[in-house]
Amino acid sequence: MLKKGFVRTISIVKPSLSDNTADAQRLEQRLKKELSGDTISIPLHVLKKLPSNLRSWGFKARAVLFKDQCSWILLDLLDPASDSPALGAAIDIGSTRVVISLINLETGQEISETGFDNPQAVIGPDILTRIHYSNQDQGLAELNLLVIDAVNFNMSKLCREHGYKKEDIYIVVGAGNTAMTHLFLGIESFEIIKEPYIPCVNIPDTLPAKSLNLDINQNGVAFLFPNIGSYFGGDLISGILFSNLDQKENPSLMVDVGTNAEIVVGSKEYLIACAGAAGPALEGGVSKMGMTARPGVIDKVWVDPETNDLKVHTIDEKKPVGICGSGMIDLAASLFLSKRIDIRGKFSKQNCKKKELTEKNGIMDFILVDKNDSGTDQPICLSQVDLNSLTSSKAAMYTILEVIVCNTAGLNFKDLEKFYVAGTFGSFINPVSAISIGMLPDIPVETFEVLGNSSLGGAKVLLKVPDAFERVMKIRKSITYIELNVNQEFMNMFSGAKFYPHTDTSRFPSLQISSFS
Description:
The protein folds into 4 domains: 7-78, Ubiquitin-like (UB roll) (Roll), CATH 3.10.20; 87-224, 2-Layer Sandwich (Nucleotidyltransferase, domain 5); 236-280 and 395-504, Nucleotidyltransferase, domain 5; 281-389, no CATH class. Helix 4 packs across helix 5 (139-161), helix 7 (234-243) crosses helix 12 (468-478) and helix 9 packs across helix 13 (488-497). Helix 10 (431-436) links the parallel strand 20 and strand 21 (448-452). The model is unreliable at 279-288 and 513-517 (pLDDT under 50). The relative contact order is 0.11. The protein is elongated and about 100 Å long. The protein has helices at 23-34, 44-48, 50-56, 127-134, 139-161, 178-185, 234-243, 325-337, 384-408, 431-436, 454-464, 468-478, 488-497, and strands at residues 7-11, 40-41, 60-67, 72-78, 87-93, 97-104, 110-117, 169-176, 207-208, 221-224, 252-257, 261-266, 271-276, 297-303, 310-314, 322-323, 357-360, 363-369, 380-383, 419-422, 448-452, 479-481. It is an alpha/beta fold. It has a 6-stranded mixed beta sheet with strand order 7-6-5-8-10-9, sandwiched between helices.
């Protein structure tokens, strides 16, 4: 059993003629002692059968609890002799994908995990479209129902597959960006996208799960990670918790690369955050070739040192059907280091092989995979337009990093103890490739650490460690959020970063001595 988990087995002093304290107060006193004096409320459904339950259980019980910003909440009282489990569900409420992890609240065991495409995508693939739709008659209710129904279905399925019931789930902890949090709660979100960009709520209360139509134990609760503002959501706070960035002695950095690039730098002394657009060109947004990871998608590209040909690897070793963000970064690095593109990111007819370049409507296309080797019977190409978009994205990423690390925090990139990369897309980035094109700073590769799904990771931490709740609120209070205004200084820095790897090549000394393979 977890030393300080959400399920506590307790023994209550039996009443006597000399001690006629009411059963409820007897239970309350024991729980207060167990919880070091914190306030605790006992719900009516527990009181209704408390006398008979305590006596049939020998004045012992398993208390299922949750701790929020106000106090401890007693969710239920269970027979200490029963093997009835108490479970929690951690949810990453992503705009593209939703992931659920089932946790045993007594042992901290991660039972199983499942993920599915966010069904709100049928309304619109991007958050902006969904928020506009939510402002229509019944639009918000429809969007809310889509995600809640899908979560209920998949939580129930997870339980059945492992011999549990949906009623065994007592706590749901969710982490998502500000807009997704609002849509999950069924709250109006239209003001988020209008000046001055104000969310309805930044710190949602712990709510009865049934008030959100979550189909779990009737006494269960739901907690969603708090937001900082419209563009810094609970998923980032969850990520900070998971990475322990808030407890570091020395400065470290976390970047979550998705639709946007959200960046936090700091230590236990301070946290500075900002967000900016860097992801869309890499995941099917701007680039026609970019797509999310699935079988047949190219995820790695490299240069054959003997033939100088470009080689590709696809997910599940299937015939290539397209390329994802990590593959595009590899591709850009391969093109640059093999001199197929110049420092401006333009294709070099002189250095590309004749079979590799073609021209359509005056725009150059680089043929990465011939149609005969493609899984679509069409060649997989990177156009100059796509490459320009990727160049802008990599420049935006580097500039945002430079602004927050160097200009705002007053650090040098080499001062960073750790450079955490989070997010589904960010998890697959090859740091060597990203450094090679000037997307990430030229620091030792061992500084980089992949976190994976840090949003889900933080939600899991909260289910396993009740004391983490204080950390969540402390993290939120300690963050200084920097608005990246597009001023002349920023644009000048951005223009310099649009070259490969940068106009100031001294920033990337490793490219002088290392080769890409």
